[in-house]
Structure formats: structure tokens, C-alpha cells
Amino acid sequence: MLTKKGKYGLKALVHLSGLPVGQLAFVNDIAVANSIPKKFLDAILGELRNAGFVQSRKGKEGGYRLARPASEIKIGHVVRVLDGPLAPIPCASRTQYQRCDDCDEATCQVRNMMLEVRHAIAEVLDNRSLAAMRDADNDDFPVELTSQI
After folding, report:
1. What is the DSSP annotation of 50-73?
2. Which domains does the chain have, with CATH numbers?
3. Which member of 11, 67, 107, 109 lies 3.0 to 4.6 Å from 34 by CB, making a disulfide possible if both were Cys?
4. Is the sign of the CA dihedral 35, 13, 20, 56 positive or negative?
5. Would you say the C-alpha torsion 117, 119, 122, 128 has a positive or negative sign?
6. In the chain, what are the helix, strand and coil shares in percent, each to the nearest 5?
7. Is 145 exposed, middle or buried (0-12, 13-18, 19+ CB in 10 A)?
């Protein structure tokens, strides 16, 4: 499940991707426009800066901007940086695999299902750029939630 940190990070990146190239945005402006707590956003933007997604400038004329074109930033990469592996369980993770000590992985139906889930999530997120996410309208997302689980 995407955490608030991941969601807020993606919202901030979408916000920055909507600015003219090179224009800086103040943290407070991003926070207010996207209903994100400023202090939390400060920490998230720091992580995004350290990962090379955004650049920052300090001072009166400071702020944040994308470090590279939105078309080059994959959503899966952002989610992994902010939230960790995409897999719902450690034995299905490609980036932070941990062997199960309570089952035979080769025959474990739970692991096999979670590998399929992880693959489906990665297929979507790793093939969608920040630019595509920014430019999409609701018709681009075919799944409609009709009930809550």
C-alpha cells in the first residue's frame, strides 16, 4: 500500500512538473496547493533531493524544481525511494528479498500469488512517467472502484 509519504511525494513531484522549466516553487506553496503538512513535505523533498529527483536552492529566491525532465522520472522509482519495495511480502521482493523461514518457497501458493501482485504493480509503475501521470485525465485510468474492501 502506498503510504502518505509516497502519496505526498508524488503530489509534490506532479506539482513541480507543472511549472515552467527551471522555475522554483516554495515548499509552503507546494504544501498549501496539495494539502500536505509543510514539515512532512520538507522531509520528503529532502529525500527526493538526495535521490536526484529534485534540486533545491536556499534563500529568499530559493525553492525546489525537478532535477530532470518529468518524462524521465518513473513512478516506480519514486515509490521505491520513498516507500521501499513494491512487493507486499519480503519473499516476493526483487530489491529487498528475504527468505521465508516457515515455508518452502518453491511450493508456497501465498508467495506465488504475491509475486504476481508485485509484477503487476511494477508493470504499471515502472512504465509510467511523471509526465504521463501529470497529463493523464480520469479517462486514462480504466479501473473504477465500486466498493471498498
Report:
1. HTTSEEEE-STT-EEEESS-GGG-
2. 4-66 (1.10.10.10), 75-129 (no CATH)
3. 11
4. positive
5. negative
6. 50, 5, 40
7. exposed
Instruction: Give SS3 for 143.
Output: coil
Q: What is the DSSP letter of 19?
A: S
Helical pair 27-34 and 38-50, crossing angle rounded to 10 deg: 120
Report helix, strand or coil for 109. helix
Per-position DSSP letters for 95-106, written without gaps between them: SS----SSS-TT
Q: Phi/psi at 18 (nearest 5 deg)?
A: -85, -5
Residues facing 65 on adjacent strands: 55
Tell me the mean pLDDT per 10 residues along the chain, length 149.
Answer: 95 98 95 98 98 94 95 98 89 84 85 91 96 85 57
Task: Give Cβ neighbours of residue 128 (< 8 Å, ≥ 6 apart).
Answer: 74, 75, 76
pTM: predicted TM-score of the whole model, two decimal places: 0.86
What is the distance between the alpha carbons of residues 53 and 84, in angstroms, rounded to a whole number?
A: 16
